[in-house]
Design a protein that fits this description.
Largest sheet: 8 strands, parallel
Helix content: 10-25%
CATH class of the largest domain: Alpha Beta
Strand content: 15-25%
Number of strands: 23
Shape: globular
Strand order of the largest sheet: 1-10-8-6-2-3-4-5
Number of domains: 2
Distance between the termini: 61 Å
CATH architecture of the largest domain: 3-Layer(aba) Sandwich
CATH topology of the largest domain: Glutaconate Coenzyme A-transferase
Radius of gyration: 22 Å
CATH superfamily of the largest domain: Acetyl-CoA hydrolase/transferase C-terminal domain
Length: about 425
């Protein structure tokens, strides 16, 4: 492996080493290196046909109007701010499992990256820097990237674990001292979400390892776990994990209880993970991977969905055939929960759209819908009306169980369609 120089220069000087037509990988969300991205955009007139690669972001400044000739975005996560750009061609969405990112963007994949822009903590006495809040794909891809430019942010937490890059593996260092981008929760869970949270919590045993995302339902679930004992968390670090740690639900000890590949939250979680032996950072292949997570006893995956049909097919990606969300790590974690001894795979969703005009439990998925989770992999489905256990059920038994947790005003219609189908 070639030893690099880790030369300290300005952001403008660092970006000058990027050329038109190259492919650049960025970290996710709170890990976005703001100083480097700002310098990249400032130099957009020189850069043409540059492709940026990443997943979910809090902001997408490189896709603002007027930058179309300079930057396009290849991604595995179709978020609300960029959906309108799919048909314009500036966003290239790949319907892929997040766990396959390395296979797709590594040097042997179909879209190998040329440059890694990363954000890291201050170096320790031996010259190692932590990738902090965004480890996932950024860490392993940076280790093989021909050119690595690191924003060394004094405010980046030093997350422990398998997430350290050495100065000898970095070409250019750009120093900064600025707050990280934060993901702020969009309001408190409502009555329905809280009901779902309590039903899900009843399924979670003590000493379970939870994989959970962001949103009103995950927050409601975590609020309902206050009486549990010795819980662990896997893959994503979010604010409410600190709250549970403060309550003793997540206990400190000699082994890490929070394994993260991405951290998405506010200063609360950033401060919690800093130099905390309870927390271990790992690259994506050791997190969003059913062969790894499936070896964890009592691994419980809690994911959301847009709709589910009476056979158990789950659509978490499309609305009326239009791309709305993405696969992310959902299927990896569904499989992991099924592989795990005493594991549980849970689909948690409200029974209707917020206006109660459309049922999320449907007789059949509409034409053009994506099947994110096939029916044979669905175990529990939870709505505000209860828990449908589909495991080992026949088609008719599945339909009956799902109708029982559908909104009452749609049950008669669903029952009639079920009679026609089964």
């Amino acid at each position: 492996m070639r030893t690099k120089e880790a030369k300290r220069i300005s952001a403008t000087e660092a970006i000058a080493n990027i050329h038109s037509g190259q492919r650049i990988v960025l970290p996710l969300c709170c890990g976005l290196p703001q100083t480097l991205v700002e310098a990249l955009i400032a130099d957009h007139k020189r850069l043409k046909g540059t492709e940026l690669v990443s997943g979910l972001q809090i902001i997408y400044p490189f896709l603002e109007e007027g930058l179309e000739q300079s930057f396009t975005f290849r991604t595995w996560q179709c978020a609300p701010p960029i959906r309108h750009l799919l048909k314009k061609g500036t966003v290239q969405y790949i319907p892929m499992r997040q766990g396959d990112v390395l296979k797709v963007f590594s040097k042997n994949g179909p879209w190998p990256i040329d440059i890694a822009l990363i954000q890291v903590s201050l170096p320790d006495e031996k010259g190692y820097l932590s990738l902090g809040v965004s480890i996932g794909h950024s860490f392993p891809l940076a280790l093989e990237a021909p050119l690595v430019i690191a924003e060394v942010n004094a405010q980046m937490p030093r997350v422990l674990g398998k997430c350290f890059i050495h100065l000898s593996q970095i070409d250019f260092l750009v120093e900064s001292d600025r707050p990280l981008l934060e993901y702020v929760s969009r309001g408190k869970p409502g009555e329905n979400e809280n009901k779902i949270g309590r039903y899900v919590a009843d399924l979670i045993p003590d000493s379970a390892t939870l994989q959970i995302g962001i949103g009103a339902i995950p927050e409601a679930v975590l609020d309902a776990l206050a009486d549990k004992q010795d819980l662990r968390f896997f893959s994503m670090g979010i604010d409410r994990i600190k709250d549970l740690a403060d309550k003793g639900v997540v206990k400190s000890g000699t082994t890490p209880k929070v394994i993260v590949t991405e951290i998405l939250g506010t200063k609360k979680i950033f401060e919690f993970v800093h130099n905390n032996p309870m927390v271990q950072g790992v690259p994506i292949q050791e997190a969003i991977n059913p062969r790894v997570a499936g070896q964890i006893p009592k691994f419980c995956s809690i994911i959301s969905a847009i709709e589910i049909d009476l056979t158990g097919q789950v659509n978490a990606e499309t609305i009326k055939g239009e791309q709305f969300s993405a696969i992310g790590g959902s299927y990896d974690f569904v499989l992991a929960a099924l592989f795990s001894e005493q594991g549980k795979s849970i689909i948690a969703m409200t029974s209707t759209t917020p206006d109660e005009k459309i049922s999320r439990i449907v007789a059949q998925l509409p034409p053009g819908s994506a099947v994110t989770t096939p029916r044979h992999s669905v175990q529990y489905v939870v709505t505000e009306y209860g828990v449908a256990d589909l495991w080992g059920k026949s088609l008719k038994e599945r339909a009956d169980a799902l109708i029982d947790v559908a909104h009452p005003k749609f049950r008669d219609e669903l029952m009639q369609k079920a009679k026609e189908l089964f």
